[in-house]
Amino acid sequence: xxxxxxxxxxxxxxxxxxxxxxxxxxxxxxxxxxxxxxxxxxxxxxxxxxxxxxxxxxxxxxxxxxxxxxxxxxxxxxxxxxxxxxxxxxxxxxxxxxxxxxxxxxxxxxxxxxxxxxxxxxxxxxxxxxxxxxxxxxxxxxxxxxxxxxxxxxxxxxxxxxxxxxxxxxxxxxxxxxxxxxxxxxxxxxxxxxxxxxxxxxxxxxxxxxxxxxxxxxxxxxxxxxxxxxxxxxxxxxxxxxxxxxxxxxxxxxxxxxxxxxxxxxxxxxxxxxxxxxxxxxxxxxxxxxxxxxxxxxxxxxxxxxxxxxxxxxxxxxxxxxxxxxxxxxxxxxxxxxxxxxxxxxxxxxxxxxxxxxxxxxxxxxxxxxxxxxxxxxxxxxxxxxxxxxxxxxxxxxxxxxxxxxxxxxxxxxxxxxxxxxxxxxxxxxxxxxxxxxxxxxxxxxxxxxxxxxxxxxxxxxxxxxxxxxxxxxxxxxxxxxxxxxxxxxxxxxxxxxxxxxxxxxxxxxxxxxxxxxxxxxxxxxxxxxxxxxxxxxxxxxxxxxxxxxxxxxxxxxxxxxxxxxxxxxxxxxxxxxxxxxxxxxxxxxxxxxxxxxxxxxxx
Length: 604
What we know:
This protein is an alpha+beta fold. It folds into five domains: 2-33, no CATH class; 42-136, Immunoglobulin-like (Sandwich), CATH 2.60.40; 149-269, Immunoglobulin-like (Sandwich), CATH 2.60.40; 283-398, Immunoglobulin-like, CATH 2.60.40; 501-590, no CATH class. It has eleven helices and 31 strands. The strands form ten sheets. Strands 12, 13, 15, 16 and 17 form a five-stranded antiparallel sheet that branches. Strand 1 and strand 2 form a beta hairpin. Helix 9 (542-548) packs antiparallel against helix 10 and helix 10 runs antiparallel to helix 11 (575-590). The protein is elongated, with a radius of gyration of 45 Å.
């Protein structure tokens, strides 16, 4: 049997080489372990279309096979905005071995009109071919826009003066499919940009198609004369697209992201006209100068402070453009300036800015005193002429202080003193005059050595001593009774009506604004609260608030707040710490009945 198996193994003889079936089987298994084919590597790039309408995106696909790394696509950012990017990987095990493949998908928005190149990409020695994409304007013959959405830009003035206001209006037209829109306004060199309120939606018909028009407005203030090139503005948004799926149960409408760009716009900025004679260049559409006195200046007296407020309001300027108003020194007056108050209010047709200046004026002598005239020159951009805002000279008739005459008169001789004259028996009034209740009206007379007054004097001190002793005994008895009582905890109750409704709302606003980081808004709200706190005599500035609350630390913090709002050094102040210090100061002023854990603000 062994011989029979041995003979079966020698069944193949080719050219003197004998191969057994077992050897054939082992050889076949070895060949199965060795890949029979090595897959070739490749890298390709394709686009869905090579002609793109301005403002629309194009899809780029980069596919690689049997590559170990991904290509570098950073070069795309120089010519395109990448709206969206996705990637996928797959591996296939076949008869020939393991094959890998990746796909990169980019949604690109071209930045410029004309022919734009998608560069070649490289990975593991494999290089794709570059692609030329042509970007054409909307309405070009032979092109059909994918979405019926476009944008336009209009200017209130295409040749403004330097530093004057130009209102830029961004209009977005859509046929009803636009779901969201977010304009992106880039920073521009030598241009100050201030957002204005968004306009109301309106309807407009173009080429027989009715569009919804959405408008955003911005106030531009060019800081340099010459030609100003405004870049193309981009709007990132989304449109309703049923082909993108959706959820029938939730009834949500599927959307697809889009990007829209406007055409570039140029502005011819004119320099300051030679006709202007103002040292401070102030272009504005309208300007007013108002003044107000805290009291009637016809009742001015020496030593009584007066407060003069000058308010400069202008349309078409920023608050920092408004000049500082200088009140010259006047002989006979001490003038103390306050920190100016700056405010800008965005309106639909532009900015309205205000600058408020306050001075505390204290007359030093009686007589006629005159404040000089103040003139502010400004350029009327509407009428294209120079104008003047005038604060007319103010004449103040200062009266002497009350009691000033009696204070400066020399004292009377002793023999003529009213008290001595009365003590010596001389009549103070004519004989025909009648005195009523002389005991109450007669002043207390000093003792002149008359012995007859001593008994009455001793009787008076005796009764005073009895009264004081009685009061001391009553106080001691009350203290003893109080000490014997057991302390009752948590019985301190906030006095009813401690804060008015307006004060509570103002304190609530302060608490919210302390978290916002806006120092100017917090300061304005603090002044509003102080007006409710002291309605009869509201403080004129932050320093006066600190003085009225008798808190040195609070006064220092308020001074830092003023510096943060108005100082060019950019001081920083913690609004939350300042708010906490204000509440602590109010607690201290409330007295010992105030619970230290009580928060006077309503819960948010």
